[in-house]
Design a protein that fits this description.
Helix content: 40-55%
Number of domains: 1
Keywords: Isomerase, Manganese, Metal-binding
Radius of gyration: 21 Å
Shape: globular
Strand order of the largest sheet: 1-2-3-4-6-8-9-10
Number of helices: 14
Largest sheet: 8 strands, parallel
CATH architecture: Alpha-Beta Barrel
CATH superfamily: Divalent-metal-dependent TIM barrel enzymes
Bound molecules: alpha-D-psicofuranose, manganese (II) ion
Distance between the termini: 44 Å
Structural class: alpha/beta
Enzyme class: isomerase
InterPro entries: L-rhamnose_isomerase, Rhamnose_iso-rel, Xyl_isomerase-like_sf
Protein name: L-rhamnose isomerase/sugar isomerase
EC number: 5.3.1.-, 5.3.1.14
CATH topology: TIM Barrel
Strand content: 5-15%
Amino acid sequence: MSDITAARAALRQQAVELPSWAFGNSGTRFKVFAQPGVPRSPEEKIADAAQVHRFTGIAPKVALHIPWDRVDDYAKLAEYAGELGIEVGTVNANVFQDDDYRLGSVANPDPRVRRKALDHLLECVDVMDATGSRDLKLWFSDGTNYPGQDDIRARQDRLAEALEAVRDRLGDGQRMLLEYKLFEPAFYTTDVPDWGTAYAHCLKLGDKAQVVVDTGHHAPGTNIEFIVAFLLREGRLGGFDFNSRFYADDDLMVGAADPFQLFRIMHEVVCAGAHEPEAGVAFMLDQCHNIEPKIPGQIRSVMNAQEATAKALLVDAEALAAAQAAGDVLGANAVLMDAYDTDVRPLLAELRGEQGLEPDPMAAYAASGYAERIAAERVGGTQAGWGA
Ligand code: PSV
Ligand code: MN
Ligand code: MN
């Protein structure tokens, strides 16, 4: 029997972190479809994120992306989030959208550009100091397009040098999360293309450096849950950027393309006890809602993550261990599939009711009138850094 009391307790303390950029207009390189009521400022993005928390009860943090969310006073921004019942979470650095970064940022052959990129990363730690954020998320678009374009090993040296400088700047209780991605925008080599490269850098950097797994950043067919299990075993999984992909870095709603994969990932998380807040794994979304409305898109994503987690928590661990020990291949697989095939929606609706929330967050948001209100009040939204 799975432990339903423990599952309920774990679900009550689950937290999913939202990306501020999910609330702004986004698209592909072919077209950005503007939507009515999108935020015009970081404050409005935070207000929209607070709506997702209001209806789901498990999205208490919003991540910033600098400079997309640049403000004069970050402490005040964090205070504003607090007034709306949420917190500023991870600070994401952006060293990929400036003309200077044509040949890379921290791995650029030009020391002036490297300095500029590093200064931005250090500035992001200043932002963390002001907001009280724990995590700095680093993703580098650095790489090359053509064989011979640059020295692959020298680029690793430059990257390591910058990462060390960031590590030295981090305060107590602050961490750097290094994100990898197979390719794009660089098409020949990428300087942090996979978990192994990220892990190797983190090992050298010490305890403050952790790997972040963006579920859309692998070659098709990659066994992501294996990577998750490995990193957890090594104590180096800092967090997730959750999203779905059909082809490349699609940034679609998590659990939309492959809910079974999300379940398998969450099963590894639960097996390692990493769903407990003390484990320090950040469960973030990194998504863009190009054609669907943004707040409902986020609500649906949070619910998908919650459902996968609930199913993972319902796995009968004792029966699974017994079947595994007995070499009962089909029995072990059946234990896992039983949990995956459980309809957890009634359980989650009940838990919401216990927290004073409406049982159906999508319907409750639709009935709230918020979408109509922001469409009437906000004219001229900001663009959210689409295509990244
Ligand atoms: C890069 O593709 C990435 O996944 C990084 O996390 C960026 O910060 C983010 O997308 C921007 O959407
Ligand atoms: Mn990401
Ligand atoms: Mn991405």
